[in-house]
Structures are given as C-alpha cells and as structure tokens.
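Design a sequence for this backbone.
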C-alpha cells in the first residue's frame, strides 16, 4: 500500500508518495503546469508507476478555518481525481505547509530560486507525514 499526497497549485503541484510501510514520504516530485487536465494525467501516470492505492489532497483552508475559493477549487479537483483514478481522496488541512516548507529549505541553505523549484514537493511531503502520523495514532495503519 502506498499513499500519495498532492499539494495542488495554480502553476506547480507537489507530489509525495509514502514508502510501502506508510511510515514516511519516499518519492517526491513537482508537476509544472497550469492545466488541471495535465495534472490529472501526470498524477495517473505516477499512480501507475508507484502502485499508489490512496490519495491525500491538500485542502487550503483560511487561517480562521473558513473555506475560500482555493479550498473550493481543491474540492472540485478531488471529485475529478476520484472519477479519473477510482481511488479514495482524503482532503487534508494544509494550512502552513508551504510556509513550513520554505522555512525548511531556507534553513538548508536554499536561496529563493532554489526553493521555488522544490517547495511544493516539500509541502506535499509535510502533508503526507502529518496524514501518516494521524493514521498511526488512530491505529489505521
């Protein structure tokens, strides 16, 4: 069993995939496109290549917990992913993951240009690790 986390963005979509034991994020990449249909096709390819059985999609809530246009866009994208892949899609609160990803990369000595290339994949990995931790605590893994 492998779980894929998706940090869906307007121009860059971060992807992180768990290891077989669902203990940590192993594979990460970024899909660079503004076209949702291209993102879906690339996600489907990655699912097939890595044997993914479950999807976790970032749900960008506002800091006060309300839902804005980005969250609604991700909810609609979740429906497309369910229909196109046949996999379950869990919406995961992704507040602060991009900020935390920038801070991790900055602490690692990456400049702004270097951070831009990988920040979405790191954000997806942070989401995935949070999701895996919750499942372990609930005894779901």
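Sequence:
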């Amino acid at each position: 069993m492998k779980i894929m986390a998706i940090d869906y963005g307007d121009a860059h979509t971060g992807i992180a995939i768990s290891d077989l034991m669902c203990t940590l994020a192993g594979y990460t990449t970024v899909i660079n496109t503004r076209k949702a249909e291209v993102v879906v096709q690339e996600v489907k390819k990655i699912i097939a290549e890595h044997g993914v059985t479950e999807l976790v999609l970032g749900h960008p809530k506002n800091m006060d917990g309300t839902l804005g246009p980005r969250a609604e866009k991700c909810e609609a994208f979740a429906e497309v992913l369910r229909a196109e892949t046949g996999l379950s899609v869990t919406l995961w609160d992704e507040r602060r993951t991009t900020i935390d990803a920038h801070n991790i990369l900055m602490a690692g000595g990456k400049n702004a240009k270097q951070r831009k290339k990988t920040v979405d994949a790191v954000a997806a990995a942070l989401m995935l690790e949070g999701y895996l931790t919750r499942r372990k605590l609930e005894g779901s893994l």
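The longest strand covers residues 25-32.
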